[in-house]
Amino acid sequence: MKNLSKIKILIILTILILLYTLISAISYSNAVSSNLSENIFRLHVIAASNSEEDQNLKYIVRDEILKYMNELTKNATSKEDVIELVNKNLGTFKEISQSTIRKNGYNYNVNVSVCSSDFPTKSYGDISLPAGKYDSLKVEIGEASGQNWWCVLFPPLCFVDVSSGIVPDDSKEIMKENLSEESYNIIAHDESEISFKFKILEIFQNVKTMIANN
User: Fold this and answer.
1) Residue at 76 is within a domain
2) Which residues pair with 139 in a beta bridge?
3) Which residues of 132-142 are buried (b: 16+ CB within 10 A; e: fewer)?
4) Predicted TM-score (pTM) of this structure
5) Could you count the other beta carbons within 10 Å of the beta carbon of residue 43?
6) 69-73, 130-134, 137-141, 207-211: the lowest-pLDDT one
7) β-pair type (41-46, 127-129)
8) DSSP H helix total and E strand total for the chain
9) What residues make up the domain containing 59?
10) Is the peptide bond before 155 cis (omega within 30 degrees of 0)?
11) How many domains does the chain contain in total?
């Protein structure tokens, strides 16, 4: 009987430890993902279709948007500053997109908005962002049934040369200024411990997205 009681106690303790670990992991994931989503603003461009022509058009529209965005937000120091500027100039973003589409011989309408969208895990040089919901400038070309293109407008990572594998120091400094130390260390992970934390965050964010979409 004593041995049975010890086994029961051991089982209960194991369950409690597992529950505590799970709750701690969920709390950690929520804290980091909230810090990231509150301080990061992204660009989301969706092509009309997956045809080669429509995909090429998507990149042309993207380039024109980034040119204007880079000039518009060059003095912005926070996500709030960027969103305020974008909202005030949504009409201009739409005009640029529509004009670019027409100049390239297409008649697609375009929808431009600021919204919250689900993003997959994405790397920009030596910075990686976990999957999750992020505010973004969303540009939908035509029926918007083609592949997505996305980047980070703030802090500015859209012009990162991914082939070099390195994010410029000035972009990293802006990220450090706007994110918690823990959040920055995770997305700029280069150590096994940080990589493990990133995987935990990624798993929980993917589960939350699956649940939200069902």
Assistant:
1) yes
2) 45, 112
3) bbbbbbbbbbb
4) 0.74
5) 21
6) 207-211
7) unpaired
8) 7, 6
9) 40-213
10) yes
11) 1
pLDDT of 198: 65
Which contiguous run of DSSP H or E holds residue 119?
strand 110-119
- The length of the chain in residues reads 214
Per residue in 121-158, pLDDT (tens digit) is 777 767 778 878 889 999 999 999 998 888 888 887 77
Residue 15 has a pLDDT of 79
Structure tokens belonging to residue 45: 């461009």
Residue at 130: amino acid letter: P
Integer Cα distance of 96 and 181 in angstroms: 37
- Name residue 137's amino acid: L
Closest residue by Cα to residue 62 from 102, 96, 106, 87: 96
What confidence score (pLDDT) does residue 195 get?
67
Residue 34 lies in a domain: no
Spatial distance between the Cα atoms of 153 and 157, rounded to a whole number of angstroms? 6
Residues 6 or more apart whose CB falls under 8 angstroms from that of 141 comprise 45, 46, 47, 48, 54, 57, 58, 61, 97, 101, 108, 110
Phi, psi of 83 (to 5 degrees): -65, -40
**158 falls within a domain:** yes
Which helix (H) or strand (E) covers residue 124, if one does? strand 122-124
Question: In this structure, which amino acid lies at residue 150?
Answer: W
- Phi (first) and psi of residue 139, to 5 degrees: -120, 115
Residue 164 lies in a domain: yes
pLDDT tens profile 1-37: 556 677 777 777 777 777 776 676 666 666 666 677 7
